[in-house]
Write a structure and sequence with these properties.
Helix content: 25-40%
Shape: globular
Strand content: 5-15%
Distance between the termini: 59 Å
Order of helices and strands: HHEEHEHEEHHHHHHH
Strand order of the largest sheet: 3-5-4
Number of strands: 5
Radius of gyration: 29 Å
Protein backbone atom coordinates (compact mmCIF):
# COMPACT_ATOMS: atom_id res chain seq x y z
CA UNK A 1 0.00 0.00 0.00
CA UNK A 2 0.99 3.65 -0.42
CA UNK A 3 3.03 5.52 2.14
CA UNK A 4 0.55 7.93 3.78
CA UNK A 5 3.20 10.57 4.43
CA UNK A 6 4.22 10.57 0.76
CA UNK A 7 0.60 10.78 -0.31
CA UNK A 8 -0.10 13.78 1.91
CA UNK A 9 2.90 15.67 0.49
CA UNK A 10 1.71 14.90 -3.04
CA UNK A 11 -1.71 16.38 -2.34
CA UNK A 12 -0.07 19.75 -1.53
CA UNK A 13 0.73 20.28 -5.21
CA UNK A 14 3.61 20.12 -7.67
CA UNK A 15 5.68 22.91 -6.14
CA UNK A 16 5.73 21.42 -2.62
CA UNK A 17 6.18 17.87 -3.93
CA UNK A 18 9.06 18.72 -6.26
CA UNK A 19 10.83 20.72 -3.55
CA UNK A 20 10.52 17.77 -1.16
CA UNK A 21 11.96 15.46 -3.85
CA UNK A 22 15.01 17.72 -4.27
CA UNK A 23 15.55 17.85 -0.51
CA UNK A 24 15.24 14.03 -0.25
CA UNK A 25 17.00 12.66 -3.35
CA UNK A 26 17.54 9.21 -1.82
CA UNK A 27 13.85 8.61 -1.06
CA UNK A 28 11.87 6.52 -3.56
CA UNK A 29 8.22 7.46 -2.97
CA UNK A 30 5.68 4.69 -2.53
CA UNK A 31 2.33 5.57 -4.13
CA UNK A 32 1.23 2.12 -5.16
CA UNK A 33 -2.45 1.03 -5.21
CA UNK A 34 -3.64 4.67 -5.21
CA UNK A 35 -6.51 6.16 -7.21
CA UNK A 36 -5.39 9.42 -8.80
CA UNK A 37 -8.70 9.95 -10.58
CA UNK A 38 -9.26 13.54 -11.73
CA UNK A 39 -5.96 14.71 -10.14
CA UNK A 40 -3.75 16.91 -12.27
CA UNK A 41 -0.19 15.56 -12.05
CA UNK A 42 1.28 17.72 -14.82
CA UNK A 43 4.93 18.57 -14.15
CA UNK A 44 5.29 16.39 -11.03
CA UNK A 45 8.64 14.69 -10.42
CA UNK A 46 7.54 11.06 -10.12
CA UNK A 47 10.88 9.55 -11.10
CA UNK A 48 11.81 6.32 -9.29
CA UNK A 49 8.33 6.31 -7.74
CA UNK A 50 6.37 3.15 -7.02
CA UNK A 51 3.01 3.59 -8.77
CA UNK A 52 2.07 0.01 -9.50
CA UNK A 53 -1.57 -1.06 -9.52
CA UNK A 54 -2.59 2.61 -9.35
CA UNK A 55 -5.46 4.15 -11.29
CA UNK A 56 -5.13 7.42 -13.19
CA UNK A 57 -8.61 7.66 -14.71
CA UNK A 58 -9.35 11.26 -15.69
CA UNK A 59 -6.00 12.65 -14.49
CA UNK A 60 -3.29 14.32 -16.55
CA UNK A 61 0.46 13.61 -16.70
CA UNK A 62 1.59 16.07 -19.38
CA UNK A 63 5.34 16.65 -19.18
CA UNK A 64 5.58 14.61 -15.98
CA UNK A 65 8.97 13.16 -15.01
CA UNK A 66 8.49 9.39 -14.72
CA UNK A 67 12.00 8.07 -15.35
CA UNK A 68 12.66 4.71 -13.72
CA UNK A 69 9.14 4.77 -12.25
CA UNK A 70 7.24 1.56 -11.52
CA UNK A 71 3.85 1.53 -13.25
CA UNK A 72 3.26 -2.19 -13.58
CA UNK A 73 -0.40 -3.15 -13.89
CA UNK A 74 -1.48 0.48 -13.60
CA UNK A 75 -4.70 1.76 -15.17
CA UNK A 76 -3.89 4.62 -17.54
CA UNK A 77 -6.81 4.41 -19.95
CA UNK A 78 -7.05 7.57 -22.05
CA UNK A 79 -4.42 9.40 -19.97
CA UNK A 80 -2.64 12.43 -21.44
CA UNK A 81 1.12 11.77 -21.25
CA UNK A 82 2.11 14.23 -23.95
CA UNK A 83 5.83 14.96 -23.70
CA UNK A 84 6.19 12.87 -20.52
CA UNK A 85 9.65 11.55 -19.65
CA UNK A 86 9.27 7.76 -19.23
CA UNK A 87 12.83 6.67 -19.83
CA UNK A 88 13.43 3.23 -18.32
CA UNK A 89 9.96 3.28 -16.78
CA UNK A 90 8.38 -0.11 -16.11
CA UNK A 91 4.90 -0.33 -17.65
CA UNK A 92 4.60 -4.09 -17.68
CA UNK A 93 0.95 -5.16 -18.18
CA UNK A 94 -0.28 -1.58 -17.75
CA UNK A 95 -3.44 -0.48 -19.55
CA UNK A 96 -2.65 2.48 -21.81
CA UNK A 97 -5.53 2.04 -24.22
CA UNK A 98 -6.40 5.34 -25.96
CA UNK A 99 -3.63 7.11 -24.01
CA UNK A 100 -1.87 10.09 -25.59
CA UNK A 101 1.91 9.64 -25.62
CA UNK A 102 2.63 12.16 -28.33
CA UNK A 103 6.36 12.95 -28.33
CA UNK A 104 6.80 11.07 -25.05
CA UNK A 105 10.31 9.88 -24.21
CA UNK A 106 10.15 6.09 -23.73
CA UNK A 107 13.77 5.21 -24.40
CA UNK A 108 14.58 1.87 -22.80
CA UNK A 109 11.10 1.64 -21.28
CA UNK A 110 9.65 -1.76 -20.37
CA UNK A 111 6.34 -2.17 -22.18
CA UNK A 112 6.07 -5.95 -22.20
CA UNK A 113 2.46 -7.18 -22.40
CA UNK A 114 1.24 -3.59 -22.10
CA UNK A 115 -2.04 -2.67 -23.78
CA UNK A 116 -1.37 0.27 -26.11
CA UNK A 117 -4.38 -0.33 -28.34
CA UNK A 118 -5.52 2.83 -30.14
CA UNK A 119 -2.91 4.86 -28.23
CA UNK A 120 -1.30 7.94 -29.78
CA UNK A 121 2.48 7.43 -29.94
CA UNK A 122 3.22 9.78 -32.79
CA UNK A 123 6.85 10.94 -32.77
CA UNK A 124 7.45 9.14 -29.48
CA UNK A 125 11.01 8.03 -28.76
CA UNK A 126 11.01 4.26 -28.17
CA UNK A 127 14.71 3.65 -28.78
CA UNK A 128 15.71 0.25 -27.28
CA UNK A 129 12.29 -0.10 -25.65
CA UNK A 130 11.11 -3.58 -24.66
CA UNK A 131 7.78 -4.05 -26.45
CA UNK A 132 7.32 -7.82 -26.24
CA UNK A 133 3.86 -9.40 -26.50
CA UNK A 134 2.40 -5.91 -26.44
CA UNK A 135 -0.97 -4.91 -27.87
CA UNK A 136 -0.36 -2.35 -30.60
CA UNK A 137 -3.74 -2.84 -32.24
CA UNK A 138 -4.71 0.31 -34.16
CA UNK A 139 -1.87 2.15 -32.36
CA UNK A 140 -0.64 5.30 -34.07
CA UNK A 141 3.18 5.15 -34.24
CA UNK A 142 3.62 7.59 -37.09
CA UNK A 143 7.09 9.08 -37.01
CA UNK A 144 8.02 7.19 -33.83
CA UNK A 145 11.62 6.16 -33.19
CA UNK A 146 11.61 2.37 -32.74
CA UNK A 147 15.26 1.81 -33.57
CA UNK A 148 16.70 -1.21 -31.73
CA UNK A 149 13.33 -1.79 -30.05
CA UNK A 150 12.32 -5.35 -29.15
CA UNK A 151 8.93 -5.91 -30.82
CA UNK A 152 8.83 -9.69 -30.68
CA UNK A 153 5.42 -11.38 -30.52
CA UNK A 154 3.55 -8.08 -30.34
CA UNK A 155 0.19 -7.56 -32.03
CA UNK A 156 0.38 -4.81 -34.62
CA UNK A 157 -2.94 -5.34 -36.36
CA UNK A 158 -4.07 -2.12 -38.09
CA UNK A 159 -1.16 -0.26 -36.45
CA UNK A 160 0.23 2.81 -38.18
CA UNK A 161 4.05 2.70 -38.58
CA UNK A 162 4.13 5.40 -41.25
CA UNK A 163 7.53 7.15 -41.32
CA UNK A 164 8.57 5.28 -38.16
CA UNK A 165 12.24 4.38 -37.67
CA UNK A 166 12.74 0.61 -37.33
CA UNK A 167 16.47 0.24 -37.95
CA UNK A 168 17.92 -2.50 -35.73
CA UNK A 169 14.55 -3.51 -34.28
CA UNK A 170 13.74 -7.15 -33.51
CA UNK A 171 10.49 -8.09 -35.25
CA UNK A 172 10.39 -11.79 -34.39
CA UNK A 173 6.79 -13.03 -34.84
CA UNK A 174 5.42 -9.48 -34.97
CA UNK A 175 1.76 -10.00 -35.84
CA UNK A 176 0.50 -7.66 -38.57
CA UNK A 177 -2.27 -7.69 -41.16
CA UNK A 178 -3.25 -5.94 -44.39
CA UNK A 179 -4.33 -2.86 -42.43
CA UNK A 180 -0.91 -2.37 -40.84
CA UNK A 181 0.70 0.67 -42.45
CA UNK A 182 4.42 0.62 -43.22
CA UNK A 183 4.45 3.48 -45.72
CA UNK A 184 7.73 5.41 -45.86
CA UNK A 185 9.25 3.44 -42.98
CA UNK A 186 12.89 4.28 -42.32
CA UNK A 187 14.77 1.01 -41.88
CA UNK A 188 18.31 -0.01 -42.79
CA UNK A 189 18.10 -3.50 -41.29
CA UNK A 190 16.12 -5.58 -38.78
CA UNK A 191 16.55 -8.79 -36.81
CA UNK A 192 14.15 -11.71 -37.12
CA UNK A 193 15.26 -13.34 -33.85
CA UNK A 194 16.22 -12.15 -30.40
CA UNK A 195 19.80 -11.25 -29.38
CA UNK A 196 20.40 -9.66 -32.79
CA UNK A 197 20.14 -12.94 -34.68
CA UNK A 198 18.89 -13.48 -38.25
CA UNK A 199 19.80 -10.02 -39.54
CA UNK A 200 17.98 -8.90 -42.66
CA UNK A 201 19.58 -8.10 -44.96
CA UNK A 202 22.51 -10.32 -43.95
CA UNK A 203 24.91 -7.49 -44.78
CA UNK A 204 24.54 -3.94 -45.92
CA UNK A 205 21.21 -2.13 -45.76
CA UNK A 206 17.77 -2.54 -47.27
CA UNK A 207 17.31 -1.15 -50.74
CA UNK A 208 14.16 0.86 -51.44
CA UNK A 209 11.10 -1.36 -51.15
CA UNK A 210 12.92 -4.39 -49.69
CA UNK A 211 11.67 -3.90 -46.14
CA UNK A 212 8.06 -3.79 -47.34
CA UNK A 213 8.58 -7.00 -49.30
CA UNK A 214 9.99 -8.69 -46.20
CA UNK A 215 6.91 -7.77 -44.21
CA UNK A 216 4.54 -8.84 -46.95
CA UNK A 217 6.17 -12.25 -46.75
CA UNK A 218 6.09 -12.28 -42.95
CA UNK A 219 2.37 -11.49 -42.92
CA UNK A 220 1.51 -14.87 -44.39
CA UNK A 221 4.14 -17.04 -42.68
CA UNK A 222 5.04 -18.28 -39.22
CA UNK A 223 8.62 -19.29 -38.39
CA UNK A 224 8.73 -22.30 -36.08
CA UNK A 225 12.17 -22.15 -34.48
CA UNK A 226 13.90 -25.19 -32.96
CA UNK A 227 17.10 -24.02 -31.30
CA UNK A 228 18.34 -27.40 -30.03
CA UNK A 229 17.57 -29.80 -32.84
CA UNK A 230 14.25 -31.26 -33.87
CA UNK A 231 12.38 -34.54 -33.45
CA UNK A 232 10.70 -34.97 -36.81
CA UNK A 233 8.22 -37.59 -35.62
CA UNK A 234 7.04 -35.27 -32.86
CA UNK A 235 6.91 -32.46 -35.41
CA UNK A 236 4.69 -34.46 -37.74
CA UNK A 237 2.25 -35.31 -34.95
CA UNK A 238 2.13 -31.68 -33.78
CA UNK A 239 1.73 -30.26 -37.27
CA UNK A 240 -1.18 -32.61 -37.98
CA UNK A 241 -2.86 -31.46 -34.77
CA UNK A 242 -2.26 -27.84 -35.77
CA UNK A 243 -3.91 -28.46 -39.13
CA UNK A 244 -6.94 -30.00 -37.41
CA UNK A 245 -7.14 -26.97 -35.08
CA UNK A 246 -7.08 -24.64 -38.10
CA UNK A 247 -10.14 -26.37 -39.55
CA UNK A 248 -10.71 -25.54 -43.21
CA UNK A 249 -7.81 -23.05 -43.21
CA UNK A 250 -4.92 -24.61 -45.13
CA UNK A 251 -1.46 -24.59 -43.50
CA UNK A 252 1.55 -25.68 -45.48
CA UNK A 253 5.31 -25.98 -45.05
CA UNK A 254 6.95 -23.35 -47.21
CA UNK A 255 10.63 -23.80 -46.36
CA UNK A 256 13.06 -25.56 -44.02
CA UNK A 257 16.37 -24.01 -42.93
CA UNK A 258 19.15 -25.96 -41.24
CA UNK A 259 21.27 -23.32 -39.46
CA UNK A 260 24.21 -25.74 -39.06
CA UNK A 261 24.40 -25.04 -35.33
CA UNK A 262 21.75 -27.55 -34.31
CA UNK A 263 18.94 -25.07 -34.94
CA UNK A 264 16.15 -25.47 -37.47
CA UNK A 265 13.62 -22.96 -38.80
CA UNK A 266 10.47 -24.28 -40.46
CA UNK A 267 8.48 -21.60 -42.27
CA UNK A 268 4.77 -22.36 -42.39
CA UNK A 269 2.39 -20.57 -44.73
CA UNK A 270 -0.80 -19.48 -42.96
CA UNK A 271 -3.94 -17.62 -44.05
CA UNK A 272 -3.69 -13.90 -43.13
CA UNK A 273 -6.85 -14.01 -41.03
CA UNK A 274 -5.29 -16.40 -38.49
CA UNK A 275 -3.44 -15.14 -35.41
CA UNK A 276 0.19 -16.12 -35.96
CA UNK A 277 1.11 -15.87 -32.27
CA UNK A 278 -1.71 -18.25 -31.32
CA UNK A 279 -0.67 -20.69 -34.03
CA UNK A 280 2.92 -20.70 -32.80
CA UNK A 281 1.91 -21.14 -29.15
CA UNK A 282 -0.51 -23.97 -30.00
CA UNK A 283 2.16 -25.79 -32.00
CA UNK A 284 4.81 -25.41 -29.28
CA UNK A 285 2.46 -26.86 -26.66
CA UNK A 286 1.61 -29.85 -28.86
CA UNK A 287 5.25 -30.38 -29.81
CA UNK A 288 6.42 -30.43 -26.18
CA UNK A 289 3.57 -32.80 -25.31
CA UNK A 290 4.55 -35.10 -28.18
CA UNK A 291 8.16 -35.13 -26.98
CA UNK A 292 7.07 -35.89 -23.44
CA UNK A 293 4.81 -38.74 -24.56
CA UNK A 294 7.55 -40.21 -26.70
CA UNK A 295 10.10 -40.08 -23.89
CA UNK A 296 7.65 -41.62 -21.43
CA UNK A 297 6.87 -44.47 -23.82
CA UNK A 298 10.55 -45.22 -24.25
CA UNK A 299 11.20 -45.06 -20.51
CA UNK A 300 8.31 -47.45 -19.93
CA UNK A 301 9.77 -49.79 -22.53
CA UNK A 302 13.11 -49.76 -20.72
CA UNK A 303 11.57 -50.33 -17.29
CA UNK A 304 9.64 -53.35 -18.48
CA UNK A 305 12.81 -54.94 -19.77
CA UNK A 306 15.21 -53.86 -17.06
CA UNK A 307 13.13 -54.76 -14.01
CA UNK A 308 12.65 -51.11 -13.19
CA UNK A 309 16.34 -50.48 -12.51
CA UNK A 310 16.35 -46.72 -12.48
CA UNK A 311 20.09 -46.53 -12.34
CA UNK A 312 20.32 -48.36 -15.65
CA UNK A 313 17.52 -46.27 -17.15
CA UNK A 314 19.49 -43.13 -16.46
CA UNK A 315 22.26 -44.52 -18.61
CA UNK A 316 19.81 -44.80 -21.47
CA UNK A 317 18.63 -41.20 -21.25
CA UNK A 318 21.41 -40.27 -23.64
CA UNK A 319 20.07 -42.87 -26.06
CA UNK A 320 16.75 -41.04 -26.10
CA UNK A 321 18.51 -37.88 -27.21
CA UNK A 322 20.44 -39.86 -29.82
CA UNK A 323 17.24 -41.36 -31.22
CA UNK A 324 15.76 -37.88 -31.49
CA UNK A 325 18.82 -36.73 -33.39
CA UNK A 326 18.59 -39.68 -35.75
CA UNK A 327 15.04 -38.70 -36.56
CA UNK A 328 16.56 -35.76 -38.40
CA UNK A 329 16.70 -38.11 -41.39
CA UNK A 330 12.99 -37.42 -41.77
CA UNK A 331 13.92 -33.87 -42.67
CA UNK A 332 14.18 -34.85 -46.31
CA UNK A 333 10.49 -35.84 -46.28
CA UNK A 334 9.50 -32.38 -45.12
CA UNK A 335 11.81 -30.73 -47.62
CA UNK A 336 9.92 -32.52 -50.37
CA UNK A 337 6.64 -31.32 -48.86
CA UNK A 338 7.91 -27.74 -48.92
CA UNK A 339 9.16 -28.09 -52.48
CA UNK A 340 5.83 -29.43 -53.71
CA UNK A 341 3.96 -26.63 -51.98
CA UNK A 342 6.03 -23.99 -53.72
CA UNK A 343 6.29 -25.94 -56.99
CA UNK A 344 10.01 -25.37 -56.77
CA UNK A 345 13.16 -27.37 -56.16
CA UNK A 346 15.00 -25.36 -53.53
CA UNK A 347 18.07 -27.61 -53.31
CA UNK A 348 20.75 -27.85 -56.01
CA UNK A 349 21.00 -31.00 -58.14
CA UNK A 350 23.47 -31.80 -60.92
CA UNK A 351 22.70 -34.58 -63.38
CA UNK A 352 25.75 -35.73 -65.27
CA UNK A 353 24.00 -37.36 -68.18
CA UNK A 354 25.88 -40.59 -67.60
CA UNK A 355 24.18 -43.97 -68.29
CA UNK A 356 21.55 -44.66 -65.67
CA UNK A 357 21.28 -41.03 -64.60
CA UNK A 358 17.95 -39.22 -64.30
CA UNK A 359 18.61 -37.38 -67.52
CA UNK A 360 18.74 -40.65 -69.45
CA UNK A 361 15.65 -42.24 -67.90
CA UNK A 362 12.98 -40.47 -69.93
CA UNK A 363 11.56 -37.05 -70.68
CA UNK A 364 11.49 -34.71 -67.68
CA UNK A 365 9.08 -32.36 -69.37
CA UNK A 366 11.44 -30.05 -71.24
CA UNK A 367 13.52 -29.93 -74.37
CA UNK A 368 17.32 -29.94 -74.55
CA UNK A 369 19.99 -32.30 -73.31
CA UNK A 370 18.38 -32.56 -69.86
CA UNK A 371 21.69 -32.61 -68.02
CA UNK A 372 20.83 -29.99 -65.39
CA UNK A 373 17.83 -29.12 -63.28
CA UNK A 374 17.13 -25.43 -62.54
CA UNK A 375 15.33 -23.97 -59.56
CA UNK A 376 11.84 -24.59 -60.97
CA UNK A 377 10.51 -28.16 -61.10
CA UNK A 378 10.40 -29.41 -64.69
CA UNK A 379 12.71 -26.70 -66.03
CA UNK A 380 15.54 -28.68 -67.63
CA UNK A 381 18.02 -26.77 -69.76
CA UNK A 382 21.41 -26.97 -71.42
CA UNK A 383 24.14 -29.55 -71.75
CA UNK A 384 25.95 -30.20 -68.47
CA UNK A 385 25.65 -26.55 -67.38
CA UNK A 386 25.84 -25.53 -63.75
CA UNK A 387 22.38 -24.80 -62.38
CA UNK A 388 21.26 -21.68 -60.50
CA UNK A 389 23.10 -21.20 -57.18
CA UNK A 390 25.81 -23.73 -58.11
CA UNK A 391 29.38 -22.48 -58.47
CA UNK A 392 31.84 -23.60 -61.16
CA UNK A 393 35.35 -23.41 -59.75
CA UNK A 394 38.37 -22.73 -61.94
CA UNK A 395 41.72 -24.39 -61.27
CA UNK A 396 43.07 -21.11 -59.85
CA UNK A 397 40.09 -20.74 -57.51
CA UNK A 398 40.49 -24.30 -56.28
CA UNK A 399 44.14 -23.54 -55.53
CA UNK A 400 43.17 -20.44 -53.54
CA UNK A 401 40.59 -22.41 -51.54
CA UNK A 402 43.11 -25.19 -50.92
CA UNK A 403 45.49 -22.53 -49.58
CA UNK A 404 42.76 -21.26 -47.25
CA UNK A 405 41.99 -24.79 -46.08
CA UNK A 406 45.61 -25.62 -45.32
CA UNK A 407 46.45 -22.32 -43.62
CA UNK A 408 43.35 -22.12 -41.44
CA UNK A 409 43.39 -25.78 -40.46
CA UNK A 410 46.99 -25.35 -39.28
CA UNK A 411 45.99 -22.30 -37.23
CA UNK A 412 43.05 -24.20 -35.75
CA UNK A 413 45.33 -27.09 -34.85
CA UNK A 414 47.67 -24.70 -33.02
CA UNK A 415 44.81 -23.25 -30.99
CA UNK A 416 43.43 -26.66 -30.07
CA UNK A 417 46.85 -27.76 -28.77
CA UNK A 418 46.66 -24.76 -26.43
CA UNK A 419 43.43 -26.07 -24.93
CA UNK A 420 40.82 -24.19 -26.96
CA UNK A 421 37.57 -25.99 -27.78
CA UNK A 422 36.80 -26.34 -31.53
CA UNK A 423 34.30 -23.44 -31.40
CA UNK A 424 36.61 -21.21 -29.36
CA UNK A 425 39.52 -22.03 -31.66
CA UNK A 426 37.49 -20.92 -34.68
CA UNK A 427 36.64 -17.59 -33.06
CA UNK A 428 40.27 -17.05 -31.93
CA UNK A 429 41.65 -17.72 -35.41
CA UNK A 430 38.97 -15.49 -36.98
CA UNK A 431 39.73 -12.58 -34.65
CA UNK A 432 43.50 -12.97 -35.19
CA UNK A 433 43.01 -12.94 -38.96
CA UNK A 434 40.81 -9.85 -38.72
CA UNK A 435 43.45 -8.00 -36.67
CA UNK A 436 46.18 -8.93 -39.16
CA UNK A 437 43.97 -7.93 -42.10
CA UNK A 438 43.25 -4.59 -40.50
CA UNK A 439 46.99 -3.85 -40.32
CA UNK A 440 48.16 -5.57 -43.51
CA UNK A 441 46.42 -4.85 -46.86
CA UNK A 442 47.86 -8.06 -48.35
CA UNK A 443 46.21 -10.20 -45.65
CA UNK A 444 42.98 -8.28 -46.08
CA UNK A 445 43.03 -8.84 -49.84
CA UNK A 446 43.67 -12.55 -49.34
CA UNK A 447 40.83 -12.83 -46.83
CA UNK A 448 38.43 -11.02 -49.15
CA UNK A 449 39.38 -13.38 -51.98
CA UNK A 450 38.74 -16.41 -49.78
CA UNK A 451 35.33 -15.02 -48.94
CA UNK A 452 34.59 -14.25 -52.57
CA UNK A 453 35.22 -17.85 -53.59
CA UNK A 454 33.42 -19.59 -50.72
CA UNK A 455 30.19 -20.23 -52.60
CA UNK A 456 29.32 -23.90 -52.14
CA UNK A 457 32.93 -24.88 -51.50
CA UNK A 458 32.08 -26.78 -48.31
CA UNK A 459 29.20 -28.57 -49.98
CA UNK A 460 31.48 -29.58 -52.85
CA UNK A 461 34.16 -30.85 -50.47
CA UNK A 462 36.76 -28.24 -51.35
CA UNK A 463 37.04 -26.87 -47.79
CA UNK A 464 35.70 -27.83 -44.38
CA UNK A 465 32.82 -26.18 -42.50
CA UNK A 466 35.25 -24.96 -39.83
CA UNK A 467 37.20 -23.02 -42.45
CA UNK A 468 33.99 -21.47 -43.79
CA UNK A 469 33.06 -20.38 -40.26
CA UNK A 470 36.48 -18.81 -39.68
CA UNK A 471 36.46 -16.87 -42.96
CA UNK A 472 32.92 -15.57 -42.45
CA UNK A 473 33.61 -14.60 -38.83
CA UNK A 474 36.79 -12.76 -39.81
CA UNK A 475 34.93 -10.84 -42.52
CA UNK A 476 32.23 -10.00 -40.00
CA UNK A 477 34.82 -8.67 -37.52
CA UNK A 478 36.11 -6.39 -40.28
CA UNK A 479 32.65 -5.26 -41.29
CA UNK A 480 33.13 -6.68 -44.80
CA UNK A 481 30.38 -8.32 -46.89
CA UNK A 482 29.73 -11.92 -45.88
CA UNK A 483 29.03 -14.35 -48.74
Amino acid sequence: MANEEHLEILKQGAEVWNRWRKENPNVSPDLGYVSFSDINLDGFDLSKTCLWYSSFGGSSLRGTLLTWSFLQNSYLLGIDLTGADLRRASLHEANLTLACLYRADLRGAFLNQTDLSSADLREANLYQAQICKTHLIATNLEGANLSEAFLAYSHGLAANFKRAILTGACIEALNTDDRTNFDDVICDYVYLRYDQQERRPHSGNFKPGEFTKLFQKARVTVDLIFRHGIDWQAFLVSFQQLQVEAGDKVLSIQAIEDKNDGAFIIRVSVPPELDKAEIENFFKQKYQLALKNKDEQYRKYLRERLNDKDSVINCYNEQIKLMRKENTNLQEVFKIMAEKENSKINNTFYISGSPGSIANQGNLGSSGNQNSIGNTAGDVKGNQESIQNNYNYTFEQKQILAEAEAEIQELLKQQRTQGYSPEAAQQKVASDLAIKANNDPAVKSKLEKWGQYLGDAAVNGLIGEAVVTVVKSALQFLGLPIP
